[in-house]
Amino acid sequence: MVASRTDPQLRSCLEQLKALTNHSHIALTNCGNSAIFLALSIVRKIQKEKTTLLIPDQGGWLSYETYPLLLGFEVKKVKTDRGLLDLDDLKTKLENHDVVALLVASNAGYCALQEMHAIANICKSADCLLIDDASGSLGMRFMLSSNDASGVCDGNLADIIVGSFGRWKIVDVSHGGFISCNEGWLKEDHTPLSFTKHHIDLNILHQKLENIKKRLQFLISSADRVKNELQQLGFSVVHPHKKGLNVIATFKDEHEKNKILDWCKKQTPQPFETTPCPRYIRVMESAVSIELKRLQEK
To answer: Which of 113, 163, 170, 263 has the fewest CB atoms within 10 Å, counting from its CB?
Structure first.
């Protein structure tokens, strides 16, 4: 079932997303990956002369490395500090003005917010489009100071914003996503990608968007608390002074790794779920990613 653009529930959800992104054009997609593919398709269509696309060397998403190749892009990776873009390397890679776009997660590995103001300025000076994957940062701009959330998910900076409403995301509807922009790139010929194959319950989406600040407050405070507790126990945490939703703890050996895992299992009222690193979507070193974004407030 495809919702009509005149559907009041759909209009309400789109208006909520416009407010969260600072973008005037929004479309829903069947998943976050579809939003990424559509964003890359738009870039390919409007900029046929340039074929180089930049992505981070870690802290991104799985499809960053594969989808661009399907559309004929040459992919180059920007150096990062555990997912946070190295601005000097970004400037170097943009020197020749031959890069069409940068695709970056504004919440790197879900554990640290990027300096999006600085990134946007560098991209603009090199005529490089900026695609902000805001799956992990939607709404955070309204919860934090400008120093902590420097331009994440902000349509005044990003040319295109994409995001997922999948399981364990900020807006966890279990499926669906969105794409937004201020230019007239989302036209009627994109309608097949503008709505989900599995009909999104727009009531649920609306409620999740309404409650986004409460959920973010819970997740951000949980991450801050976990970082502090781990550091007090002597563990090393990735980007301890940055705001995020997950917490990534590094380890020197199996003994230290097991101590972190045991600590996570003993947490109440919910044990903390973890995923192992190195992983491109988190950090490329030996670490435990504590998946706090999976928590549900009791």
So the answer is: 263
